[in-house]
Write a structure and sequence with these properties.
Layout: H1 2-10, H2 13-35, H3 41-83, H4 100-141, H5 156-169, H6 172-188, H7 191-229, H8 238-274, H9 286-309
């Protein structure tokens, strides 16, 4: 039943993709209009209105994606409970919330989406900061760039290189946590605790992803409302400055951390299902879990030092 529900939700994929594509098209049209000196001011006003609608349609599309991810993860979790090597009269792993190991797994799983979301948001901040430093350097060193002299061009390749490099490097730490956490819990504690971890991560990850997608779009539209309608003092007012701060948080909310939680939920579920025969009764393979816990600590420590401490971004 869960699988059929997921397939039914994905049957609207064409509409969902069209809804998702609308927002970036309108946003890019506004950016091109703003950079083109021949475009009238009314063009930018119209593209802003379209972009505001695009934020709403993007939130709707992300809601479909989150819902399908949760249904897929629930299907994986159901199959996982049938494939783990745990003695039971029903042939499935019994995930009883009164069991302290299952409850501890739920609490750990509920924490993981928040940790993952925080790391991805900090990564966006770091990448944006490095691009700002690069733009300031070009303004200082390239003569005539700040004044807009004809024939003077910026080095856009440097900014693209910084963004691409950051996108790869910054995923090492959250990626290691997403991959190694369920395997470590399954080996160290057991299959029941891992089942609780999956349940907790699905529940909290779903709510957090929906909140991030909706809140990010709302913050963005609040800023556009003040700019376009010239209410609450218009641009450069205290209300507008506060909304700009909200939009600065809202962009990684709706475009990075929210969609990334779909990947986290599905990745942990598919890893647990793939390795389900390895996970057994409580504490049977604690020694292997301790080894993997040490490996996870080393990997996360090296990634944190290489990409955070060494680059002096904390």
């Amino acid at each position: 039943g869960i699988s059929i529900a997921a397939v039914g939700m994905l049957s609207t994929l064409g509409v969902t993709l069209a809804t998702d594509a609308y927002g970036p098209i309108a946003d890019n049209a506004g950016g091109i209009a703003e950079m083109s000196p021949d475009c009238d001011e009314k063009v930018r006003e119209r593209t802003d209105a379209l972009d505001a609608l695009g934020n709403t349609t993007a939130a709707t599309g992300k809601g479909f994606a989150i819902g399908s991810a949760v249904l897929t993860a629930l299907a994986f979790m159901s199959v996982y409970s049938e494939n783990v090597d745990v003695k039971s009269t029903t042939g499935k792993a019994q995930l009883d919330l009164t069991d302290p190991l299952v409850l501890s797994g739920v609490m750990i799983g509920s924490m993981l989406p928040y940790l993952f979301g925080a790391l991805t948001m900090l990564s966006v901040r770091k990448a944006a900061g490095s691009i700002i430093v690069e733009v300031q350097r070009q303004f200082r060193e390239i003569k005539g760039l700040l004044e807009g002299e004809p024939g003077v061009t910026c080095d856009s390749d440097a900014c693209i290189s910084l963004c691409t490099q950051a996108s790869v490097e910054e995923m090492v730490l959250p990626g290691a946590l997403a991959v190694l956490s369920p395997i470590t819990i399954g080996l160290l504690v057991g299959a029941k605790c891992l089942g609780g971890l999956l349940a907790g991560s699905i529940a909290s990850g779903f709510m957090l992803a929906v909140m991030m997608s909706n809140a990010g779009g709302a913050w963005d539209n609040a800023k556009k409302y003040i700019e376009n309608e010239k209410v609450f003092g218009g641009k450069k007012s205290d209300t507008h400055k506060a909304c700009v701060v909200g939009d600065t948080i809202g962009d990684p909310f709706k475009d990075t951390s929210g969609p990334a939680l779909n990947i986290l939920i599905k990745l942990m579920s598919i890893l647990s299902l793939t390795l389900a025969p390895v996970f057994t009764e409580d504490w049977d393979t604690w020694w292997a879990g301790l080894i993997l816990l040490g490996v996870m600590g080393i990997v996360c420590g090296v990634a944190f030092y290489a990409f955070w401490v060494k680059k002096k971004t904390i």
